[in-house]
Write the structure tokens for this entry.
Amino acid sequence: MRHLFAAFVASIVVFFWGFMSWAAIGIWDFAFSSARNETAITESLRSSLDADGTYILPVMPEGYGQAPINEEQKAAFESYEARHREGPIAMVFYRAQGGEVMPPIELVRGFGIEFVASLLLACILSAVPGGFSRRAYLGFTIALFASTACYGVMGNFMRMPLPFVFAFWADAIIAWTLASMVIAKMLPARLQA
């Protein structure tokens, strides 16, 4: 029962941190740039993309990375490489249908995800012998590991802009370190065996 309560309180802290950092004070606003001509881009997306999904430009030809099987495929591979070198390179997260800005169900789902993650973190930290300092340190290390493994690797291989990667990386480390501190404080110290 303590795990559930500690995870619930940690979820509130993570949720509140996210609201404060992204919405209230906007410390990560630098991570997003504004397009000069939103209308033209939107119309181009509508006319070019058929379904929801993630699109990467330039489009990689089928079979790329393997030896070309004919001259036509070789030319397609060379064209792709030239377009990639020339740029632009883009990744588009696309949803054809619009929606409300931050609907309540999105907030509920977000809190649910944070609760499950906090519960998993509470289970890990409760197995650590020692008190607050040791558990909080381990929680920080887990936050650092997970953020680097996710955002660092994704930022590198998907060539995401450094400000975007840094904002999500730092935000996750701060949020989950705070959660770790809450959990470490709320769970009883465990004696070393």
Strands lie at 53-57, 90-94. Residues 29 and 36 are 17 Å apart (CA to CA).
